[in-house]
Amino acid sequence: MTQSLVAPEATTDVLEEITVKEFHEKISRENDILLLDVRNDEDFEAWRIESRYTPETMHISYLIFAEDGPAALDDLPALMAIPDDREIIAVCAKGGASDFVAAILRDEGKTAVNLIDGMIAWGNYHVFRPVVEKEAYQIYQVDRIARGCLSHVLISQGKAAIIDPLRHVDNYTRFLDEKGVELSLLLDTHAHADHISGGPGLAETTGAGYYLHPYDAIHPFDMLPAVIDYEILQDGQELTLGDLTIRVLHTPGHTLGQVNFIATDSEGQSYAFTGDNIFIQSFGRPDLGGQGEAWAPIVYDTIFHRFKENVPEGTWILPGHYAAFDEANEQGVFTKQVADLWRDNIGLQFKHEDHFITYILTHLPDMPEQYIEIKRVNIGLTHPDEDAASELELGKNVCALADAYGG
Fold first, then answer.
1. Which of 117, 156, 167, 263 could form a disulfide with 121 if both were Cys (CB 3.0 to 4.6 A apart)?
2. What amino acid positions are annotated as catalytic residues?
3. What's the pTM?
């Protein structure tokens, strides 16, 4: 019979748990950590912890411990491979089962700690990294590591803009409070499918204007209009944030209403916030609106005409996603100059439209079913609670073509 998850009595002078921030700092550099994932097989296969220096990971279901109780390791053959001389970090879905397992391992003399709040904490963890910090303006990249989702905060003359704000809006409000600036603009490059936007919620609580292209204010499957308040984005429109001028470039294909925001300073240096148009590797898939064959030619025209003809080669791109950690520079920022992008991005090495379209249609990953529902949420058609929202966002994004993920 399965015993209750009550850990053995803990030793007070031994480290028993670790925060997600402390954990991320450890796995952001070379390490000898053994990560013990004690979730069930299905959850482990669906989604696991990865980083620039992903630790060696062992997967053993906590049920082995629960069924046998806090027994000696000699009685649990599957656990004999767990070493005595390495730091072990145990993780589960919410932190309870892994706390139980870590306590058993410590009782056996091993150095084992529990990741507080488990995969929930990992999934919700955001890192703010400076892209550029000048006296006139600053740009920060916000990395939701578990999903490979990026958003950006621009600050100038006491005002702030957030591009592609993610769902956990408290991260942004705390950051802006620390900087002592007022939120002025909320800009979504498109109506996202892989994650829930924080834009409408932030607009409601702060009074900042929320901007979206009207083509993305209609659900592509339901054909229902948005029921959120938003300001209309138009191609060529210019917005001002202190020293920065933000130009709207309509870049359809991933969605019909996708735009890029080209921010330029007074000296002419520009930054392209490309959303799901172009990534460091690959580009945004065209099928998440159910129109892959019809939208693939639009992707070609957008990338090789609209983007190429309107975005200077000295511009730094700041995308909405990444597929691999090695896409970042030495500072951990996912950015690249356009000239280098044309040379290095494997998805852009095409001279003929028909070859490009064939490449797209033969490299599409499966579309997660929850993406249709996320699109409903993002235009106000449905309103999930926190547990349902977390379930919708489970796992990494798959907004690029399959080869970006090693497929």
1. 117
2. 92
3. 0.92
